[in-house]
Amino acid sequence: MVAIHPFFAFFIAVGVSFGSAIPFGPINLSVIDTTIRNNLKCGVLFSLAAALVEIVQVMVALFCSVWVAEFFTKSPAIKVGAFILFIVLGFFFLFKGKVKKKKETPDSQVANFFKGALIALANPQTLPFWIFILTYLETVQMIPINANQPWSIIIAFGVGVCVGKFLGLLGFSLLSHRIGKKSTKITKVTNQAIGYFLIVIGVIQGIQAFFM
């Protein structure tokens, strides 16, 4: 077993997780919409919830990688579920009405926190992604994160994943906050772009589920 330092594991996890938050997907697109429709605080809470869920997903990928890989490979239900989820979300964004700022309340903040956790849990791409990343890091002997490592390494890696994801999503929240303040027309175009993007992802998932 290769000896590594917890700080090294932490910073590698931050970099990988931050990079994974950049490509458009259901989570960061939802962060944009949440921030525009509510406020920056709700967007930050949404991002925090999604980042905390990412820790759980990484631990599942770490300790149950064989079972998870077999489940995702052999179960078409995952791809069918993703197909339905992305298509529904896509049309939801396309047919949204005029963007109206909602009054901030403690209940709305809690609701957006749980909304972030729910969408993060429903994202079907996260577990396969982390299984691939963990396998790759161990294969190239860069940072072998596995169940045999000390808990200090595993915890440092998990915390780094959370921090990296949160920082990446926070960037989207800050950017969308600035956009939302400038023009409601821009937010309408953003909603349409998000809708079409999600529908394309859904179609791809549908092709994989029914024809591959």
Q: What order do the helices and strands come in, and which of them pair?
A:
Blueprint: H1 6-21, H2 26-37, H3 40-63, H4 65-74, H5 76-94, H6 106-122, H7 126-139, H8 151-182, H9 184-211
Helix pairs in contact: 1-8, 2-3, 2-6, 2-8, 2-9, 3-6, 3-7, 3-8, 5-9
Calculate Rg over CA atoms.
18 Å
Main pleated sheet? none
Unreliable stretches covering 5 or more consecutive residues: none
Overall geometry comes to globular
The percent range for strand residues is: under 5%
How would you spell out the order of helices and strands? HHHHHHHHH
Helix fraction bin: over 70%
Q: How many discrete structural domains? A: 1
State the secondary-structure class.
Answer: mainly alpha
Mean pLDDT across all amino acids: 79
Q: DSSP helix count?
A: 9
**Overall strand count:** 0
Distance between termini? 39 Å
Write out key terms for the chains shown:
0% strand, mainly alpha, 212 residues
Give a structural overview.
It is a single chain. The chain is mainly α. It has one domain (6-81, 100-191). Helix content is 81%, strand content 0%. The chain contains nine helices and no strands. The chain has helices at residues 6-21, 26-37, 40-63, 65-74, 76-94, 106-122, 126-139, 151-182, 184-211. The chain is globular. The protein starts with 5 loop residues before the first helix and ends with a helix. The mean pLDDT is 79.
